[in-house]
Amino acid sequence: MNKKLTIASALLAASAAFAFETWIGADGAAQVETGLGNATETQGYWFSYGDDGDGGLSKVVWGGELGNEYSADALDNVIATCGGVCGTAELNKGSLTYNPFVGIGFNVVGEASTTDKTPVAGDASAWGGVCITYTSDAAPSLELGLGDAVDATIGYANPAASLPKSTTGSKKALAWTDFKQPSWYKGATKIDGPTASSQLVAVKFKIQATPGSYAFNICAVGPYDGTCPASCAPGSSIKSVRGASSVKAILSGRTLGFTGVKSAATAEVLNLQGQVVAKGDASSSMNLASLDAGVYMVRVSGKSVNFSNKIVLK
Fold first, then answer.
1. Is the pLDDT of residue 239 over 70?
2. What is the domain count for the chain?
């Protein structure tokens, strides 16, 4: 074999593996940079799913307010509040004949195009596997999503790896060989973890257990040899989830105001580098005329409020 080609192939595989930048929730980024995104730039945004298609009544009660100026389901505020993707899995069996579940995941490539929202597959084999740092009141699993068509072909017996219950925060590194189809699957179409990784659509964190309430927080995720922290950031674990904040940020031109602030609270405006560029009392409006046009994070904190949201200055 040509030695130069062998070295080049090794370097290419190494660079591909590190192209997946370990996502750490405490940094506040809403998007996981998988290194496999396409031109739509829709890879890595978190989504949720559940058992309602089979008659279940499970849901996630999120640890922060949903939505931003682009999507009502965006988890930006949840991540900023929790230092991760956090909430409580409210598992309700409904008419199911098996244990109820909810899941949280992200697509590794993104949507097919701006008009076709179907998530497409990519080759993530160079990652070597996945690392994750999390808390969970129930033992979750990591599942490899292969897209609706392939998932249906294998009877939704996707390769998965079990994770231990952890209420204080744990790190787990899983090689692709650790992902296996469930033992109950007796179908003819077999697929192992390494094969699934070469046609991967999504990585999914799934909580399936007896009916009840189970708090969780996905604090970090990255490639197998990535830099997932050993535990979640202090204060990122939750035992209960507060109701959605009544605070709203209202931007009128370059004047920022707030509604729903019922006690003393401080408002801060941060740039994309996390620097505080404006600060004031949330009970009064803030003049942002001196700031450059762009995207900023607004944060309101006080004894009875913890709110964050993005604003766009034009």
1. no
2. 2
